[in-house]
Amino acid sequence: MTNTIADIEKAEVILITGSNTTENHPVLSAYVKRAVTLKGAKLIVVDPRRIKITDFAQQWLRPNLGTDVAWINGMMHVIIKESLYDVRYVESRTEGFEQLKETVEKYTPDFVESVTGIPAEQLQRAARMYANARPGSILYCMGITQHTSGTDNVKSLANLAMLCGNVGIEGGGVNPLRGQNNVQGACDMGGLPNVYSGYQSVSDIASRQKMEQAWAVSDLPDTPGLKVTEMIPRAHDGSLKALYVVGENPLVSDPDLNHTEEGFEKLDFLVVQDIFLTETAKKADVVLPSTCYAEKDGTFTNTERRVQRVRKAVDAPGEAWDDWKIICEVAGRMGYSMNYENSEEIMKEIARVTPSYAGITYERIKRSGLHWPCPNTEHPGTPILHVDRFTRGRGLFHAIDYNPPAEVTDEEYPMYLTTGRLLYQYHSGTMSMKSDGLNERAPESFVEISPRDAKRYGLENGSLAEVISRRGKIRVKIKISPKAVDGTVFIPFHYAIAAANRLTNAKLDPVSGIPEYKVCAVQLSKAA
């Protein structure tokens, strides 16, 4: 997030898109609700489903799946045409405006309606509402990123925020809501194939030499490794022989699960390090039991870039070790000694080699976390990014055209499927499905369908249906719901039985490598 969670309550207008906020981020959604009900903020929600947060919205736009660039360009068309944008901000702090203006010229409200299904007058009202209220906060989640156009979607939202001068100010910003508690921290620590910690590129000679010196090694690679979504195809074709999976359950969470399972079967060696025996761990040659959050010391970095302490509350069961101890032991047995006394010693090394974390110490975050970048121990942290200038100097507008999803409906597969999460289950259920209370509230998978589509296909609430895509099929219970839109069904992805990801498309965003979980074509019929 460019801004803090608390900043949401300082916004005059909040735009939420691609986020079922009340179910996926229930604590954060309370800030949105307070901003609207107690502080007079205006809320715009853009989502194909009638999710709970729409009850608080002044404007709810319901786009066709995978058309985000089109409606964002359409809003910018209206804002530019009606001279509602922040001219001073655009001229003093950005570049590329003329190219953006030229690109969005064709995205008239009528044209956008023909692509997205959003009525022209609704698009115009939402554009005016966002542009006329300052500051404005944009919140988004995986409904924006999990597309083959995910990178373009995020850049388009950044365009919209900069156009209205909403970056670098209190109550504004472009704010991704992370899907898991330490996703931000994992990325910050170099859990990506092309960077070291703090997003220092592996191709940068100075960064590479610094890491070589810190780790007493030579000849670190100067080319990126594989993205996680590139590994399974390599396993499938035999060029990737071994896989070490830490805290992940890809045999539920990866797209096109039939293909994923085949890839895992072809591996020569699989290691899984986790807190429970997941569906993936059951396939492993070696399972390394690790500790959960309450059984270890360390830090998490949350969605607002706040680095926070985690303290051990209970002893770990059995032979479970801290993740860092397991990794150090494996490294030692492979010939590279990694000796740390405790997690604080690791944090000191992080600060030495990571400029954005250089001022963060256990003592400083003893009671309250710090937002990175925090370049030295006197620095108070940076709750809001890009206040005076962007990292590159001027903010760059990206002129982006709309491209349709990788898969569209046809006569054989006439319905769209989108996937997501439920309030009462979490990710692949590794932890939440150990709770009887949560399982009672959300015991099994279902397919959410509109009343009209249910009638059209002769489906009754609670009956079994067969859902088939070009990649697989599942049998799942029907849930007729006013949340659903005609022509589109929704299936939660948590469940290994009737797994939604047997159906989803593994086509990737060309930049980020994220799969298109949110759009695929399916057929629906009454189960035999």
Descriptive account of the structure:
It is a single chain. The chain has 4 domains: 6-177, 3-Layer(aba) Sandwich (Dimethylsulfoxide Reductase, domain 2), CATH 3.40.228; 179-225 and 290-375, Rossmann fold (3-Layer(aba) Sandwich), CATH 3.40.50; 230-289, Dimethylsulfoxide Reductase, domain 2; 415-526, Barwin-like endoglucanases (Beta Barrel). The strands form 7 sheets. A 6-stranded mixed sheet has the order 17-19-18-23-16-20. It has a 5-stranded parallel sheet with strand order 3-2-1-5-6. Strands 9-10-11 form a 3-stranded parallel sheet, with no helix packed on it. The protein is globular. The protein contains 18 helices and 23 strands. The chain starts with 12 loop residues before the first strand and ends with a strand. The chain has 528 residues and is an alpha/beta fold.
